[in-house]
Amino acid sequence: MATEIKAPTFPESVAEGTVAAWHKKPGDSVERDELIVEIETDKVVLEVVAPEAGTLTDVMAEEGDTVESEQVLGKIGEGSASGSQKEEKSSGDDSAEKSEEKSEGKKEEKKSQRWRQATRRKSSQLP
């Protein structure tokens, strides 16, 4: 049975947030209390952790989507051994390295994008 990953309850003065970054992709295994996704509000960045161990099966809110308090962000299903078998098969494959390099580049790009957004937001609040 799938477990829902929900946005946390936002503070009273915060109505909504934006999915800033997913740290896991569908099919990735997760451990209980492992960071899965970050939600950025106008006041704070909230970290959402896995409520239980398993496999991320579904992402319902993509990066950049606006979400509300307690909204379902994704689902975790029961863990499976197929994920580790896939890793063993591709461990000697160059495509795995290329995929990892692409992933690192995307992470850096996302960080840079979030920094620019935060800077713009702060500068627009100046008198």
TrEMBL record:
Keyword Mitochondrion carried by entry: no
Keyword Ribosomal protein on entry: no
Domain Lipoyl-binding: 2-77
Residue ranges, annotated region (Disordered): 59-127
Superkingdom classification of source: Bacteria
Keywords: Lipoyl
CDD domains, per database record: lipoyl_domain
UniProt cross-references to Gene3D superfamilies, sorted A to Z: 2.40.50.100
Pfam families, A to Z: Biotin_lipoyl
Biased composition (Basic and acidic residues): 85-112
Cofactor(s), by name: (R)-lipoate
Biased composition (Basic residues): 113-127
Family stated for the protein in its record: Belongs to the 2-oxoacid dehydrogenase family.
Protein known as: Lipoyl-binding domain-containing protein
